[in-house]
Amino acid sequence: MNKGPWRSKKYLAWVRTLPCCITKMEGVQAAHINLPGSSGMGQKPPDYLVLPVNYLEHRKWHDKGHPSHEALIALIKRVLQKAMAHGIIGGRLEMEFDTVYDLVREWDRAFRTGEAYYEV
Predict the structure, then answer these.
(1) What are the residues facing 28 on neighbouring strands?
(2) How far apart are CA 29 and CA 12, in angstroms?
(3) Which helix (H) or strand (E) holds 73?
(4) What are the φ and ψ backbone dihedral angles of 84, each rounded to 5 degrees?
(5) How far apart are the first and last CA of the chain?
(6) Which of 5, 31, 53, 120 is 20 to 30 A removed from 82 (C-alpha atoms)?
């Protein structure tokens, strides 16, 4: 079993087809979101923790910090729900959690065990 962060080039390519989650403009990057417990030191978070963000917004996040964890999680949930509705992600992903740590731990477990999986 792979112990590194979950990766899918095809999922990232699909995320890049979406409009920016901030400005609604086209032409986005798949921006990895660091949530507490989402990755090891010096590692990118798993690919399910990405948002479609245009270059300027992405740069602002790196320079000035991103929105609150709660706001980011709400945006990530919308992207994942859209992916499931379009058949990009299959299986089951729980969406309600008490803490960010619980969310990351459960989503990581779901992708590792195959309960959730990339269809593309």
Answers:
(1) 54
(2) 9
(3) helix 69-85
(4) -70, -40
(5) 20
(6) 5
Q: Is 2 strand, coil or helix? A: coil
Q: How many CA atoms lie within 13 A of 97 on its CB side?
A: 17
Classify residue 44 by its DSSP letter: P
CA distance 86 to 102: 26
- Give dist(CA 19, CA 114) in Å, integer: 28
pLDDT of residue 73: 84
Q: Which amino acid is at 103?
A: L
In Å, the largest CA–CA distance within the chain is 38
* Contact (Cβ atoms closer than 8 angstroms) between residue 49 and residue 103: no
Give 58-101 pLDDT, tens digit per residue: 888 878 877 787 888 889 889 988 998 888 888 877 777 777 77
Q: Which structure tokens are listed for 13?
A: 């390519």
Q: What pTM did the predictor assign?
A: 0.80
